[in-house]
Amino acid sequence: MAIKALWAGRQLSVRPYQDGDEVAVLDLVAADRLPGQPPTTLAMLAEALAGRSPIDGGWWAELEAPVTEVICDETSTVLGAVSYATRRSDGAGFILWLHCREDQVLTEALITRAIDQLGQRTVHAFEFASALTLGLEGLPASHRPATRRALEATGFTGRDLWRYMRADLPVTGLPHAAHCTITGCQDPPGKRLEVREGGEVLAEATIGLPAAGIGVLWWIGVTPAARGRGLGLALLGSALDLLNGLGAGEAILFVDDDAPADPDPERDRTAANSLYDRASFTEVDRLHSFTRHP
Ligand SMILES: CC(C)(COP(=O)(O)OP(=O)(O)OC[C@H]1O[C@@H](n2cnc3c(N)ncnc32)[C@H](O)[C@@H]1OP(=O)(O)O)[C@@H](O)C(=O)NCCC(=O)NCCS
């Protein structure tokens, strides 16, 4: 279907994603790949197209089958792709992923197309992680400025939710936790590290099994009474060593530092952010999610 936008003087059209678009769409996804993210494979794309994701899978299971469309020029060259869906329980719409090499005209055309097709309903954008990435739950705002601008220009309001960080492994010079037990865990597939004292868990961390040489630190926590004594840094040192031993050459993590310390001090991530800075992690980007009301 032809759409109103012109791109470099050429008429654009939108059509459903079809077999044969894989290479072009994977190229578009690759153009937006962030440090700390594995290359997106055909299998990952197939999962996203089917409406499944290893991370945030429960939220994906609440959606109707996603619609994926591509935008082409007159020569049928695929210039961009967008995937969107509705949620069964409340009818909300979701723009799940979108790639077009951060071209302003294309991203506005794709977002407008998704809004039009989703109709009169609240639409969320970049709310969940997709199978195309390793846990990126939001739009990396600095790396995707055109998409962010296009969302805001079409009536979306953004929320700055997560800090996305990475580090090369091994990180040298970190202490290690004494008497740390390591067990396997299923969801996510990985390992759980625990430091116990007298049967009580003082500190715990969860890591994901490395994929493509990249490991994720999903969680680290120290019980409030044991904080400030070096346990968190030592457990982090052990977790990163374990990831390295399992084959990871880099580690990534996400900090949910969007909530104020008041009323829930347990959501305060001041210490966590300082811990990760101290352990040589660097911020890659901030992850934003967006909502538009009809
Ligand atoms: C983050 C957390 C694991 C740190 O554990 P900890 O045992 O208290 O940390 P350590 O004593 O090992 O301190 C290590 C570094 O963290 C930082 N840090 C620790 N407590 C801090 C605080 N209250 N304020 C600022 N920085 C702090 C410092 O950089 C410190 O290094 P330094 O001692 O050389 O200054 C702990 O505060 C916690 O469990 N917080 C709640 C859960 C959480 O936020 N998890 C992370 C989710 S992403």
Secondary-structure topology with pairs:
Layout: E1 2-7, E2 10-16, H1 22-31, H2 42-50, H3 57-61, E3 67-72, E4 78-86, E5 93-99, H4 104-118, E6 123-125, E7 139-140, H5 145-153, E8 157-168, E9 180-185, E10 190-197, E11 200-211, E12 214-222, H6 231-245, E13 250-255, H7 270-278, E14 282-292
The site of coenzyme A has 18 residues, from strand 12, helix 6 and helix 7.
Structure description:
It is built from seven helices and 14 strands. The chain is α+β, with helices and mostly antiparallel strands and 294 residues long. It has two domains: 2-160 and 288-292, Gcn5-related N-acetyltransferase (GNAT) (Aminopeptidase, 3-Layer(aba) Sandwich), CATH 3.40.630.30; 167-286, 3-Layer(aba) Sandwich (Aminopeptidase), CATH 3.40.630. Strands 1, 2, 3, 4, 5, 6, 7, 8, 9, 10, 11, 12, 13 and 14 form a 14-stranded mixed β-sheet that branches. Strand 10 (190-197) and strand 11 form a beta hairpin. Helix 4 crosses helix 5 (145-153). It is elongated and about 70 Å long. The model has no long low-confidence stretch (mean pLDDT 95). The site of coenzyme A has 18 residues, from strand 12, helix 6 and helix 7.
List keywords for this structure.
294 residues; Aminopeptidase; 2 domains; 14 strands; binds coenzyme A
Write a concise synopsis of the structure shown.
With 294 residues, the protein is α+β, with helices and mostly antiparallel strands.
Order of helices and strands, N to C?
A: EEHHHEEEHEEHEEEEEHEHE
Helical residues, percent: 10-25%
How many structural domains can be distinguished in the coordinates?
2
The average pLDDT is: 95
Q: What structural class is derived from the secondary structure elements?
A: alpha+beta
CATH class wording of the largest domain:
Alpha Beta
What is the CA-CA span between the terminal residues? 24 Å
In percent terms, what proportion of residues is strand? Answer: 35-45%
Oligomer: single chain
Distinct ligands, ions and cofactors found in the model: coenzyme A
- Main pleated-sheet profile: 14 strands, mixed
Looking at CATH, which topology of the largest domain would you report? Answer: Aminopeptidase
- Globally, the shape reads elongated
Number of helices: 7
Residue stretches low in confidence (pLDDT < 50, at least 5 long) are none
Radius of gyration of CA atoms, rounded to a whole number: 21 Å
CATH architecture annotation name of the largest domain: 3-Layer(aba) Sandwich
Number of strands: 14
Fourth CATH level, the homologous superfamily of the largest domain: Gcn5-related N-acetyltransferase (GNAT)
